[in-house]
Design goal:
single chain; rod-shaped; 79% helix; 2% strand; two-stranded antiparallel ribbon; 2 strands; mainly alpha
Amino acid sequence: MTDLNKQDKAVKEATEKQKANQKAYEDTSKEHKEVVKKGQDSLSNSAKELDKVVGEAKKSGVTVKESSTTTSPKYKEVKGLEGEELLKANSENLGLYNKAVTEGVAEQDKSKADLKRAVDTYNADKKAYNDTKSERDLAVSKGQSELQKSTKAVDEQVALAKKHSLEVKEKHGQQHT
């Protein structure tokens, strides 16, 4: 009877251990799915925002070199772990995953901010160039107009002087008679 009691006790312990392992598995699986979904959503949203700024940059005429990297933390091995050890290892791994996601989002956000600054600087410089070019073009046009008026006035005076038989000497060695 003692052997039967020992067997019965061993079966009960094994059953309890199996139940605890099954519960640990279910709990960690559920938490894992939730954490991974949240992490993927965060990365995806960050990537969409970055893609939007890249599109704006390209539309503005800024050349953008795109590259990406994939990093993965060194996760704790869970094979062979049971109960509390398994829960602890899974919790640590999820913490490592969250940290990696946070770092990835931060890197994308930094890239987005850097690119946004570059686009803003480019657009400001482009506007300044266009404004300056417009001012220059206007000044050249006014200068040419004033020069034409001045040349016409001089030509009229030269013609008037010639009409009255005056000798007119021009600089640069030209002479009107």
